[in-house]
Amino acid sequence: MYNKDIIVAPATPPGEAGVAIIRLSGSGCLPLSMRFFRCSTSRFTPLSHTFFHGFFSSAGGDVIDEVLFVYMATPRSYTAEDVVEIHCHGGGQCVEQIVQTFLAAGARFAKPGEFSYRAFLNGRIDLIQAEATAALIRAQSQLSHRLALAQMGGGLSRLLYSACSELREALAFFEAWIDFPDEELPELDLQQIVARLTNLKARLVSLVETYNTGRLYTDGATVILVGRPNVGKSSLLNALLREDRAIVTDIPGTTTDLIEETLLINGLKIRLIDSAGLIESHNTIEIQGVLRAQKKIQTADMILFLIDASSGFTSADRSALAYCEDHQERLVYVLSKSDLPFSSCLPQNLLADAVCLSSLTGSGLDLLRSKIHDFLIGDNLLSDSSVVLTDLRQRDAANRTLLALDRFLNLAAESASLELMSFELRDALLQLGEITGESASADVLDLIFSKFCVGK
Length: 456
Known about the structure:
The protein contains 16 helices and 13 strands. It is α/β, with parallel strands linked by helices. The strands form two sheets. Strands 3-4-5-6-2-1-7 form a seven-stranded mixed sheet. A six-stranded mixed sheet has the order 9-10-8-11-12-13, with helices on both faces. Helix 11 (315-321) links the parallel strand 11 and strand 12. The longest helix has 25 residues, at 155-179. The protein is flat. 37% of the residues are buried.
């Protein structure tokens, strides 16, 4: 993707707005942009990181818009190249005419993520920080926003660079003894190296264990409402959303498909799913609804199993619960319709462990919101200095690093050859570098940056 030409793209989304920004990057973007910018003052010296007021004109000299002009000299710019930004009035025509003027003058329209790609290739940011930049743009909750900012700060990068440094140091000992066995080299203390890399492995294992929390903070969690028909699932969905999203009637089986909506609970993004009643049926539509609910139960982060407190725990509830029997660790019981008299047919363990609520009166809803947040996050509250994995690509590369370290440690325990052990150290280093981008392939980089928005 990368070459030294001048790229241009809007850095703000399309549509009417007070201001829009057109960004250029690359050697020569300053003289190119000065061909079309006329400063309000008689003397114009484009000082770096200074705004200038003026007018942007077409190649024929027609004024397109009143603008602000700012030049950011290399390396003190986002891409670490010369960058120029034109701040014009928001609106399709202003942006379109300015961009087309630059394209006609020889600039090229930037590909998605190309500005960030140049920042990465020029050493301005690493791959973790680039992914965090994209995550910051996509953040839909306070928690995902905070975590993206923390990742941009470089905490994870520093931890992984330190790990890479330990691997390189160990590898240097092995390769020196392999290449120069007769030289007077520092004594290779294999036990000391094994101890250090065992400790490194433990730190990486702890890091991998943060992935689920990082994923929840970044992408949010899926919570599905399940139970027999007419137990109050749709009413609860509406109550949590504070809107009439699902149809609610006294007729069992009103919901025949999945209804999915998003809400925030204590800053955590939740994808809440109302499902069809779990029931044995010969009705084709009901069967499809149950099958779809089953699939979501398999992947949901949390399962809220509803029981009508006024009806008690019935045989229909028992049959519905069978669909969740392999997922007890993700199951939370909810006693709905608690504004009505409780049935005597409720097991004591349900009364003790379940969340009691009434979607009609709102009683217990705040308790359920707290239960959902605490169940998903638990004690894994993140601070601005927390170091976690947030991306599946990062976790997979870290796991491959651990496999290579395991093979190294097994070889060391077997007193295997230095060549075999050094091979595994090189592989561990290679896999770890996939996360920071030091050893990521061009195809991987292209895939990652192609997911960015144009202009970033």
